[in-house]
Design brief:
Blueprint (H helix, E strand, L loop, with lengths): L2 H20 L2 H8 L3 H26 L9 H24 L2 H8 L2 H12 L6 H18 L8 H24 L6 H4 L2 H15 L6 H21 L6 H8 L1 H14 L5 H36 L1
């Protein structure tokens, strides 16, 4: 198996783990039952501390630990993820959930376009088809509610989508391991949340252990894997795994809080999952076919 094929499989596995782990973020936030900015403060603060502890322990075990901020590209990526978190939180409070989820789905489009323009990575037809199917799935999920938000909130959601795609593209262009960089980037939304909590809202989190678990375990795993993915696979492919939260978060909420998803949510979710799984299987089949062809050519 060639190094390129091995890296591609590694990238698919990393981003799949990251995307799946991220789906429990919203249920854990709801279980905490706190004020939004207080939750953001505790969540990002815990994530930042956990990242430093994990990095320090990793460095004690082996010197081959990824850098926290690998050069100027690392600083840029950390800033993009940090700004993306701030615009995301702003959008949560300024537009409808349906609008937010739908607009964030365009991360895949932005990532594909930026990779095409700046990295000359033209998406394969199968990837474009999968992306189109996933956008249709998201539109089905939120179609009845699109248009209920406001322009400012929608713009903030669009900025968040573009910033995440930009971070993926810069990571891909650098070829560096950015796993810890996304975790360090949470210091920016932490400072904003600290200012808001100290100045206006006050601190209130009724069940902080859920957020501590979220920040110490869920966020490091999901952010690290999703941020490391662009080193091995295209930006468009990485961005597709972010959409798993759109599908599975409502399922976990249904199981925990007995909030039954709508028929449109189930139909759209099925389309999203089918497109993502089919695309991943196609990539693996293509990889195996190229490997067999390569072995036959060497015989």
């Amino acid at each position: 198996m060639s190094a390129i094929q091995t890296d591609h499989k590694r990238g698919l596995l990393l981003t799949a783990i990251g995307g799946l782990t991220l789906t429990v973020d919203i249920p854990l936030i709801r279980l905490a039952e706190g004020e939004a900015w207080s939750i953001l403060l505790l969540r990002t603060g815990t994530t930042f501390v956990a990242a430093l502890v994990i990095w320090a322990v990793w460095r004690l075990i082996t010197p081959q630990v990824p850098q926290l901020l690998p050069g100027r590209a690392g600083v840029v990526v950390a800033a993009l993820y940090g700004l993306g978190s701030i615009t995301f939180v702003t959008a949560v409070f300024s537009t409808s959930t349906a609008n937010l989820v739908f607009i964030l789905a365009f991360t895949t489009m932005f990532a594909a376009l930026l990779s095409w323009l700046f990295l000359k990575e033209r998406p394969r037809p199968a990837t474009l088809l999968a992306m189109a199917a996933m956008i249709v799935g998201v539109l089905i999920i939120v179609g009845d509610s699109v248009g209920t938000g406001n322009v400012f909130g929608d713009f903030m959601a669009l900025c968040s989508s573009f910033l995440i795609a930009s971070a993926i593209t810069v990571s891909r262009a650098s070829g560096r391991d950015m796993g810890f960089t996304a975790l360090i980037g949470v210091i920016m939304p932490f400072m904003v949340a600290l200012a808001v909590v100290a100045g206006d809202t006050g601190y209130r989190v009724d069940a902080p252990w859920w957020i501590i678990f979220n920040g110490a375990v869920v966020m490091p795993i999901s952010f690290f894997c999703l941020a490391a993915g662009p080193r091995y696979i295209s930006g468009a492919e990485v961005a597709m795994f972010y959409l798993l939260e759109t599908v599975l978060a409502p399922v976990w909420v249904w199981m925990i809080f007995s909030e039954v998803p709508t028929t449109n949510s189930l139909i759209g979710g099925a389309i999203l999952i089918t497109a993502l799984v089919a695309h991943s299987i196609w990539q693996l089949v293509e990889s195996r076919r190229h490997r067999v062809s390569g072995n036959a050519g060497q015989a």
